[in-house]
Automatic annotation (TrEMBL):
Residues 65-183 form the CENP-V/GFA domain. Residues 1-44 form the Stress-response A/B barrel domain. This is CENP-V/GFA domain-containing protein. GO terms for molecular function: carbon-sulfur lyase activity; metal ion binding. Belongs to the Gfa family. Keywords: Lyase, Metal-binding, Zinc. InterPro entries: CENP-V/GFA, Dabb, Dimeric_a/b-barrel, Mss4-like_sf.
Amino acid sequence: MTHGFVLEFASQADLDYYLTEESVHVQFTKDVSKLIEDSVVIDIRDGVLFGPAAEHPSLKREGALKGTCHCEAVSWTARLEKAEHVLCHCSTCQKLGGGPYSCNQIIPKEELVIVKGQGNVGVYTYKGASGKSVNCHFCKTCTSHIYHHQDVMPDKVIVRTLLLEGGSKMPATGEIFGEGRLDWVKELKEGLVGGQ
């Protein structure tokens, strides 16, 4: 007969303490091991017994990059054809992000998968340059902008590429809304890969 129970711990340190130092558990383990030859305590991490940590199925897709918001309450994967940024200088990106531009890439909607924290994703809707709605999806806790979905492009999303793993090393290869580029940012164009 097989018996089992599951305990969840707030941290690895709590689990380690329970398994090796907590007096009731240590004594129970000694007593039970005499009665049941095949008794064993199994360490379960990330939903996997032994072996590597669990990975969301979307991570197994070629080219899928992990992304997280600042507080890591929300994580996702995005599959990009090329790991690169397109800079957007529109006034909305400047106001929403508090900087001179945002780093983005337009990808098919199905290539973005929220892996964790879907319930923590809020939506702010505004009118874009097309006059149609743009839905800005962001973390409700830290307000990191994850992606935008525009009514004018229903099958695409605009993912914030700087939030993806390796984002700080991706080259900027283009820009949009260049007319909104701040004067002191203009020399950035010379640094873009290909000078576009």
